[in-house]
UniProtKB/TrEMBL annotation:
InterPro entries: Periplasmic_diS_OxRdtase_DsbE, Redoxin, Thioredoxin-like_sf, Thioredoxin_CS, Thioredoxin_domain, Thioredoxin_ResA/DsbE_sf. PROSITE patterns: THIOREDOXIN_1 (PS00194), THIOREDOXIN_2 (PS51352). One of its GO terms (molecular function) is disulfide oxidoreductase activity. Its main location: other. It comes from Tranquillimonas alkanivorans. The chain crosses the membrane at residues 16-37. This is Cytochrome c biogenesis protein CcmG, thiol:disulfide interchange protein DsbE. Residues 46-188 form the Thioredoxin domain.
Length: 192
């Protein structure tokens, strides 16, 4: 093999070594992107259909009532797990306030591992949609509910069973298409 052929051969190998990692990266990135775009955004929950876990949380400072499992029996309601340090909680709060003002369904909150003063400032700034708020300082109650990221929103039937779970902040479309249809169906069943 001549010197020119050896240089050309090394150049081809070097090009292949440079192109191969880039091609592999692009293939993996494409596969991940496809996976993200082609998933059902409803995460399964083993809690659906089960009674809410037994709990009794103290109230947020300055409030009379905390939240307990007993409070979630007798009417369809929503339980929203939130914290002042949670940026996505800030995103969905205007919709929760709007829903509370409409009086469609009682909304209760579980304040997760939060500073009480920060939680109060958060509600003062963005509005307070909650009928009751229980403070989960240790996070134990939220773990019992199967919470693994904030915010999480649960629809509870009149018998105190979890009927629906939404993970992450919801927007108007998700509220109208995923959460409220479950609320309305349960309210119709409860009224029958």
């Amino acid at each position: 093999m001549s010197g020119e052929e050896q240089v050309a051969d090394r150049s081809r190998r070097l090009s292949l070594l440079l192109v191969l990692p880039v091609a592999l990266f692009l293939a993996l990135a494409g596969a991940f992107f496809w996976g993200l775009m082609n998933t059902d955004d409803k995460l399964p929950s083993t809690m659906i259909g089960r009674a809410v876990p037994e709990f009794d949380l103290p109230p947020l400072e300055g409030r009379d009532n905390g939240l307990s499992s007993e409070d979630l029996r007798g009417e369809v309601s929503i339980v929203n797990v939130w914290a002042s340090w949670c940026a996505p909680c800030r995103v969905e709060m205007p919709l929760l306030v709007e829903l509370a003002e409409a009086g469609t369904v009682p909304i209760h909150g579980i304040n997760y591992k939060d500073d009480p003063a920060a939680a109060e400032r958060f509600l003062a700034e963005l509005g307070d949609p909650y009928t009751r708020i229980g403070v989960d300082r240790s996070g134990r109650t939220s773990i019992d509910w199967g919470v693994y990221g904030l915010p999480e929103t649960f629809v509870i039937d009149a018998e105190g069973r979890i009927a629906h779970k939404h993970v992450g902040a919801f927007d108007r479309r998700m509220l109208e298409e995923d959460i409220l249809p479950v609320v309305r169906r349960l309210q119709a069943e409860d009224g029958a």
